[in-house]
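Amino Acid Chain and Its Fold in Token Form
===========================================
Purpose: to set a sequence beside its fold so the mapping can be learned.
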Amino acid sequence: MNVSLVLIIIMAVLFACGVYAMLERSLTRVLIGFLLLGNAANLLLLIVMGQPGRAAFFDDASAGSGTEGMSDPLPQALTLTAIVITFAVSAFLLALIYRSWQLGQADTVEDDTEDIAVRERGVQDEDALDDEVEVEDDDDDVTTDFVGLETSPITIVSSRELDGVVDDAPVDRPDGGEHR
């Protein structure tokens, strides 16, 4: 077997185990699943990187002036970014797990009454709700509810309409003149 085929199989297993663990209700298993997904993503970037080569900043006169034999720095930068993101989200999940343990002595996410009510609602209820919410096609072009009403919340006032308004804002004209 080829080395890259083994890495691809390991990456696929890590992705599968990570997704499976993240679908559990235990926050600890979600954390473990997220860590597995992060490692699988790093392995994917390692596979994509290809053959290792010279560093891009290394100047070797004997190797020639071309970019032949240099390794691509982009997957390395993406791997470092993925490591930092995985660390930050893992720290956040650990804080959530700790707080959940403090409040309820368990890290399992339980259903609340709204979740149970949604689960028990049948397909007929869903269809009835869809029928009740119909949007009229006439109002699709209108972006506000106050078009054409005298009670619109925004009133544009200029110095021409009211004598008490002083418009001394700077203008962006080459002559610096006022706009009338």
The chain has a mean pLDDT of 77. Residues 89 and 95 are 10 Å apart (CA to CA). The radius of gyration is 30 Å. Residues 73-104 form the longest helix (32 residues).
